[in-house]
């Protein structure tokens, strides 16, 4: 059933440039967007301890305990905020997630996600390679939450960047992710 990556994020300069390229290649009619109200965007699940667990899809949900986690997910953010700054050149994604957010987040969320995205071991893959922005927030601002807060109001998209009609539509409709009908193998 698995045929590789199924979706692309349309966020940031890279995501918008990808949409521009898709339109330039004449593939716009093959794009299948996933909007925020779509069940696939709302119902995120993880498999742990021989059971499926639904992840919170709202702000209110992070304040409630959700299996397989022993505490509400908001504690992971508190953990990031209270961690002392640690200057590093690089780290594994697993070590980064465990240090910033706790062992359960690393074990039940990050490690399986990395395995699914790149069929790799989160303990072996560089955080600078796959999650560069999060690592830079930690190194430059002392934590992921602090970095997010400091950069939240800065536009990452160059105001002079020319957007295709497809990229404009993705921004206007706030697509979470998108795919191509027939699979992403249509793209290359």
- The assigned structural class equals mainly alpha
Helix content: 40-55%
The CATH architecture is 3-Layer(bba) Sandwich
How many separate structural domains?
1
- N to C succession of SSEs: HEHEEHHHHHHHE
Low-pLDDT regions: none
Strand order of the largest sheet: 1-4
Percentage of residues in DSSP E strands:
5-15%
Task: Just give the CATH class.
Answer: Alpha Beta
Overall pLDDT, averaged?
Answer: 88
Distance between the termini: 20 Å
Q: What is the name of the CATH topology?
A: FAD/NAD(P)-binding domain
- Secondary structure: number of strands: 4
Radius of gyration from CA coordinates: 18 Å
Question: Can you count the helices?
Answer: 9
Protein name: Protoporphyrinogen oxidase
GO cellular component, one term: mitochondrial inner membrane
Organism: Lyssa zampa
InterPro entries: FAD/NAD-bd_sf (IPR036188), Zeta_carotene_desat/Oxidored (IPR050464)
Outline of the structure:
This protein is mainly alpha-helical and 188 residues long. The protein has helices at 12-24, 39-42, 74-82, 93-101, 103-118, 127-130, 132-141, 144-151, 165-173, and strands at 31-34, 45-48, 51-54, 177-180.
Explain how this protein is built:
- This protein is mainly α and 188 residues long.
- The protein has one domain (13-186): FAD/NAD(P)-binding domain.
- 44% of the residues lie in helices and 9% in strands.
- It contains nine helices and four strands, in the order αβαββαααααααβ.
- The protein has helices spanning 12-24, 39-42, 74-82, 93-101, 103-118, 127-130, 132-141, 144-151, 165-173, and strands at residues 31-34, 45-48, 51-54, 177-180.
- The strands form two sheets. Strands 1-4 form a two-stranded antiparallel ribbon. A two-stranded antiparallel ribbon has the order 2-3.
- The chain is globular and about 45 Å long.
